[in-house]
Amino acid sequence: MVVGSMLHINGKPTVHFSCKSNHDRPSYIPKPTAVKMTTITTTTITTAPSILQPYWASLQADIEAHLKHVMPYKDPLVVFEPMHHLVFSAPRTTVPALCLAAGELLSGDRHQAMAAASALVLLLAANHTHEQIPSKPKPMSRPKSNTMSFRAFSPGIELMTGDGLIPFGFELLSRSCDSVQENSDRVLRVIIEISRAVGSKGLIDAQYKKKLLSESDGGESCHVERIMDIMEKNEGGLHACGASCGAVLGGGSEEEIERLRKFGFYVGMIQGMVNEGFWEEVEVVKDLAFKELQYFKDNNRDVDAISSFIIHV
Amino acid sequence: MVVGSMLHINGKPTVHFSCKSNHDRPSYIPKPTAVKMTTITTTTITTAPSILQPYWASLQADIEAHLKHVMPYKDPLVVFEPMHHLVFSAPRTTVPALCLAAGELLSGDRHQAMAAASALVLLLAANHTHEQIPSKPKPMSRPKSNTMSFRAFSPGIELMTGDGLIPFGFELLSRSCDSVQENSDRVLRVIIEISRAVGSKGLIDAQYKKKLLSESDGGESCHVERIMDIMEKNEGGLHACGASCGAVLGGGSEEEIERLRKFGFYVGMIQGMVNEGFWEEVEVVKDLAFKELQYFKDNNRDVDAISSFIIHV
């Protein structure tokens, strides 16, 4: 690792070192002590890898098909048009697909964790929608393509639609309870997992810290530490949640759930580190992720599919 | 009922008639055909009755004490200070107290439905917080009293805090699952009830329609119909949800749950009608509410306490 190398902020290269320890940080994650010749973008969000691997794309397609089925485009269009637009135009992340993949790894059924994966899509879309609401009103325009680079709806509609998507996500999950499987305890556990990951101590905390970081003047020497802290709750925390929820609904044991939680955390951290240019640390974390998968391989599980979440990054 | 009487909007008296039928409206609710000499306030929210009856106040105090216990004022204060402020300064409604009251009526234990009542407080506070976010930034000031007539936090913080409160409400509910009582199915049912009541087809829909109504020019003749439609999802729907959730967690049978849902709906409609000056209809709905309570009285339940929700309005 390069210590004390260049960090570009607002185009100005400065030298930064980590200046505090984070007692909450898992000790198995290497902490970059500095950032190497890369522009830090504090507005990065958890997005799908640029290479759309067939497995991820196939899982994502299944989730979207399911969402279109449970959330049909119907009257009142004034409600369902913005819901559809904001859900399907939000940046895709690998979090919901990893949830399905974890469920498939343990149960052999790709759709075992569909309710949790769908809820994650809805909650992350709601979060993204609210994150895009400007502090000052901007001109509206009609949607022309499948991107969010314009404002398709007024901030008021986006606020209300986001507020509608969140309970709908929890409703979908609760309705997935299956009396045959008697899985209500597992569904409740997933609700707790997701609530924590997207809540005040998870994603919301990361976004607040990201906001503070983007407003800071760049004169502090804690940037790397702060970026890692944000990454652990954003990319790391969300993927850990996705994988653990898939494991819970896939009928996993405590050991399996915790190993998949760690694997998911590494998947997210790898994505975050790639975005920030922490290349050396990426290889270390990939090794850690493979070690978690080795446990499943040793127990005769086919890990080829799920390992694509780290191989193709 | 007076048909075609005076409706004051923006100080200008006009005559209004209902102009369409609402097939979704329960037939047992009388629909005012016109509003009598009263100023319609489309910005009314569901608030507690002006007379704080001892029973309601006592239930509310218990819920707030519970919330302070599960949501302690702790570090990071940057997260918990706005959470506390926005939860405890939001307008109090009778919805959570009615939830506890319904649970107490059936189980004899006032705290049986505490998780649902607390979740309702959090979700309604989040909704109120988001509703107050201005479309244009306003000057901030520090909190001086227990009201929301000023902006204590920036819109960005209010948006994020609201987004944190919603999953926390669902987390509280999910965590309340009791392995001794084996009530996970009932908790999941409550999550569905609450999700629907506060979601796109419930409260959010009512707020959207309220927004449209407040922006209309007053030249239409459908105001009463539209006000009733909003009231049924806002005051009516939320109280129906509160009472039914209390009944579910109180161990109620399907008959008891549905009767308490209707009772809650009437409680909410009475409050809404009082706010709008639909006085004649209030008495009709009170009778309907008492009829639902009669069922419980006939089954040797003590309905004195819960009946205070309609007696003192």
From TrEMBL, chains A, B:
- Names of required cofactors: Mg(2+)
Please name the GO terms that the record assigns under molecular function: metal ion binding; prenyltransferase activity
SUPFAM superfamilies according to UniProt:
Terpenoid synthases (SSF48576)
Provide the alphabetized UniProt keywords: Magnesium, Metal-binding
| Gene3D superfamilies recorded | Farnesyl Diphosphate Synthase
PANTHER family, sorted:
FARNESYL DIPHOSPHATE SYNTHASE (PTHR43281), HETERODIMERIC GERANYLGERANYL PYROPHOSPHATE SYNTHASE SMALL SUBUNIT, CHLOROPLASTIC-LIKE (PTHR43281:SF6)
Please report the name of this protein according to its UniProt entry. Answer: Heterodimeric geranylgeranyl pyrophosphate synthase small subunit, chloroplastic
- Gene source species: Arachis duranensis (Wild peanut)
Q: What is the lineage of its organism?
A: Eukaryota, Viridiplantae, Streptophyta, Embryophyta, Tracheophyta
User: Corresponding gene?
Assistant: LOC107496376
